[in-house]
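Minutes, project check-in
Item: structure for the 428-residue chain
Input as provided by the requester:
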Amino acid sequence: MSGPRPASEPSLVQDTVYRRARRDVVSNLHALDDRLSRRHSTRARILFEAASPMSFVVLRSLYQRLANDGRLELWFTAKGEVWRPKDLYKTFGITENVISPRKAAWMKVDAFANTDFWDMTWLHRRTRRIHLFHGVAGKYNLDTPLDLAPTIAAFDCLMFVNTDRRDRYVNAGLVAPDGPQAALVGYPKVDCLVDGSLDRHAIARALGLNPGVPTVIYAPTWSPYASLNTAGEELIDRLAAEGLQVLVKLHDRSYDRGQRGAGGIDWSARLARYASHPQVRVVREPDGCPYLAAADAMVSDHSSIAFEYMLLDRPVVIIDCPGLIRHAAISTDKVERLRASATLADGAATAAAAVVRSLREPGVLSAARQRTAADLFYRPGTATDRAVALLYELIGLPAPADAASSIQPKHAPLAGQASWHFPSPYQF
């Protein structure tokens, strides 16, 4: 059986006289459009597209690096039925240059950065298309999405989080092995977990947490088949009953009351009963990293955030959700990898008990967690540097001297575990 066709070899099905002539005409029109656009614009335009607030978090560190470059003009759009562009970006304090997908489709930009192959605006004018992956959990066949081959082929650059996914795309013939289309960058979103920029104690104080009491974060994925719908409230109550402080961090799509997102449940209303609870904090900010930094242990089901938490090498408990694995088309190897690095529970009661045990012995499974984090996140702490440098290269601008990270470690490293001594019966 022959290997994948080289990217430079034309498809015999599509390489017809008509298609070649059509490509030539379109290419000439794009070239004319490029020349006219350069005459009327002195700044390079970058268009960011998010499908949800959490997906913009993946792009945010790039945006922050580019925002002060006077040679650039930054624009923003959002594709999807749940979040309107102006509402989505207002969350991040962005109110200017926010446009609808319809307007974005015909706008002339030098680069387009997005994080979702499914919810994306098709731009009709030539640009540099850049994709940042929005997770490592292996859902919806994203590790090898052969059905998305035509969409992937339209991108000039895919910024891969790790070697594993990059190799899978190359071996499947989805990207050429050389050049920026298969760039090994890392995951800019999690740089803050390891670069010393987060102050764990300040985050805990802002949340009103007691530094003498262990904190556990419950961060399930979104799906009517996820643990939130089957055991979420019972789990929160049981963790609090153990005397633990509980951070509840839902995926933002869990607040979409549609059947696909939350199974028709209004989780904003359901979780409102914890508003005055002395031990429970329901956090709604899109970026979960500060809350990961503040937590001593995590409970999840199957979500990228569980893998991200392993960069801190703290205990993870996973609630078994067979329906989620089946309906979200999660790759078998990612399921096995997560479970090999965490404690598996079959429901709320066993998960709460596992959290208590893990806080007593946080070093259990430490080696597995560290291996998983090393395999799934390429050179964490410096991914934004590579992503920004590559973006400047793609648009043909020299990177400014201050484009490289100026962050110096300001706080103690976040990675590591605390060993808690529990007085019976777990009174703190």
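Outcome recorded: The radius of gyration is 23 Å.
No further action items on this chain.
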